[in-house]
Write a structure and sequence with these properties.
homodimer; alpha/beta; Isopropylmalate Dehydrogenase; eleven-stranded mixed sheet; 15 helices; 11 strands
């Protein structure tokens, strides 16, 4: 099965210089892929020429779709959505709607990408709001899937509940784990900890656990993200965004300090030189580039968001993420998980504000 | 001026073995300090003996106040607050109320420490809720003061406004910067970003800035914490707690990976050995122990919270923090800053979100 990936070539801080190079590199090393490069045709063609790809044996696996406009990082949502109807971002997403592509990758403006994706593709049945799910490395040398990372700054319990179910479907499709563990990000492990939204969400997730829909671990704390306590960490987009960016900031800080100290004098430089394989391994294990590519979950189509500042190496990881998602039928998994949520209608107790009382099958978890 | 510090010797994961050792070490190296060790007298005495401090020339600068009970990490708030009236934590805080101590340090249960401090000391005029403010290292090699770190999981704009003013007073008192910059933690820099609470808070802080009360920088993002973009970062206790713990978790993760890679083979071990001064410098610059000691702000007395798992080195940093706070008249600075807030009533434009009713008794806003 050939995976067709549409690339918003004009998005991101570096545009085609990065996106086209990454697409070419990916298509060279991947058999069953067809790339649709969307953007200003002459620029894309000249990038391909620069890369000497126009005579490559894999060249036929790339096609170009022209789009005359570009959504910039500064464009307000209305402009991106209503005025720039021929933007590379919009046209790339249209490829999915028109069934020309299985998945789309963009490094453009997150807000615009979410808004256009939502407008063009619509949300899946039973999804109130799409969310952005990214992968972080953890101490167990496994991935931690975390969402939402910024699409929803205010969440109600049922949104977080939906995020949990979608992320579980994503994780099991991509990682092959039948029932991945789900943790709810909180300020403590105990049930009494946290604000109102989190406490109510925990109750909803306990209900889903009881029904066998998800494998709810319970509350997790900030340190559990990198400890790998659970496969999935659910939080609202405000907390998720701040935490992710704080982690990136701390990572940069550590790197700066390490570099500065190793360059302090001849001896330390020598040590670093001798130990360079170790330092390289550390760098590669913690390199955020290897975790580039957030999935927009809850849409009727697969869209992957790359970091805006991604280089070609990093953007290629986002393409890999897109390829894996399409290959593993992530969309179908999520749609079916959300359908089951419909089939098992939200009990009265859960609908409003939770009052897990008598009729909930798993009454006893409701207490504590 | 001698600073009198009361120490809750029984608090924390390690109790007197850590707290007494840290107090002794501190008193040995600090001239103008008087330590009040609070806890089970026989245990404290035996620790002092173990440390061979009972014949030391600085021994007279330590006194012991017996307390028969201990607040455990598992104690519910009611137990800590209502039942254990002779706990080392309570008695240590009482020392401030009774004007026997200028500042108190405890590594005990955060919730209990906040509740007891609030009950015994009361909040300062015009403070609705106390907050916990900690120091983090940043890339500029300066401290970032961040609050709230867990005392208030739900905040209204006026609470965050108060946190900002208190932190600015703390920062200028301890660091000697007249008008430290204040950043509001958000998911983006633009004014339109964020949830309702953050947007309303930004307006309040802009008003305070216009009045010359604080130096409001604007919104900051997660990465700005470690970049050192502003001196102070304000957020609610949920976001602050999660972010801080995530940073700790990432720090541990990086350390584990570094250690593992350097120990991988003889060559890398040799490199690490040669570069050990660099690694040590990195470790010391990023060592969370050096940043131990969160200030409980907004009380009519100075209370410093140490990490529960602190070792003696780390606990001594919390004592240092306490000493510095008292020495620099932090309490007076904060009280006077909050008094000015009364003197300059909140403008109509923001009154909706606000209602800083001066008559609100400092009672019922539970932190849970």
């Amino acid at each position: 099965m050939t995976i067709r990936i549409s690339i918003d070539c004009m998005g991101g801080d570096h545009g085609p210089a990065v996106t086209v190079a990454a697409a070419v590199s990916f298509v060279k090393r991947t058999e069953d892929v067809q790339m649709i490069l969307v953007g200003q045709e002459n620029i894309i063609r000249s990038e391909l020429k620069k890369l000497k790809f126009d005579h490559h044996s894999r060249f036929p696996f790339i096609s170009i779709v022209h789009a005359s406009e570009v959504v910039t990082m500064e464009d307000p949502l209305e402009v991106a959505l209503r005025r720039k109807k021929d933007s590379s971002m919009r046209v790339a997403i249209n490829q999915i709607k028109d069934e020309q592509a299985d998945v789309c990758v963009s490094a453009g403006n997150t807000g615009a990408l979410m808004a256009i994706s939502r407008y063009v593709l619509k949300t899946l049945p039973n999804v109130d709001r799409p969310a952005i799910c990214s992968i972080l490395p953890n101490q167990k040398n496994k991935p931690t899937y975390m969402l939402d990372l910024g699409a929803n700054v205010d969440c109600e319990p049922r949104h977080l509940q939906q995020f949990a179910i979608m992320a579980a479907a994503l994780f099991s499709a991509v990682e092959g784990t039948a029932m991945p563990t789900v943790g709810l990000l909180n300020v403590g492990e105990e049930d009494i900890k946290g604000n109102d939204v989190v406490k109510k969400t925990a109750q909803l997730l306990r209900d889903e656990h009881a029904k066998g829909v998800i494998n709810f671990y319970g509350n997790v704390e900030g340190n559990d993200i990198f400890a790998g306590t659970t496969d999935i960490v659910v939080c609202d987009g405000f907390v998720g965004n701040v935490t992710l960016k704080a982690a990136e900031g701390l990572g940069r800080f550590v790197k700066t300090v390490l570099n500065a100290e190793f360059k302090r004098n001849f001896i330390t430089m020598l040590g670093a030189l001798i130990a360079r394989s170790a330092l390289k391994a550390v760098g590669s294990r913690l390199n955020p580039s290897n975790y580039n590519g957030g999935s927009l979950l809850g849409l009727r189509g697969l869209v992957i968001k790359s970091h805006g500042g991604a280089d070609a190496y990093s953007f290629e990881w986002a393409i890999q993420r897109a390829y894996d998602a399409a290959k593993n039928g992530v969309l179908e998994h999520i749609a079916s998980a959300m359908n089951e949520l419909v089939a098992q209608p939200v009990s009265e107790s859960v609908a409003g504000a939770i009052d897990v009382s008598s009729e909930t099958p798993l009454g006893e978890t409701g207490t504590s």
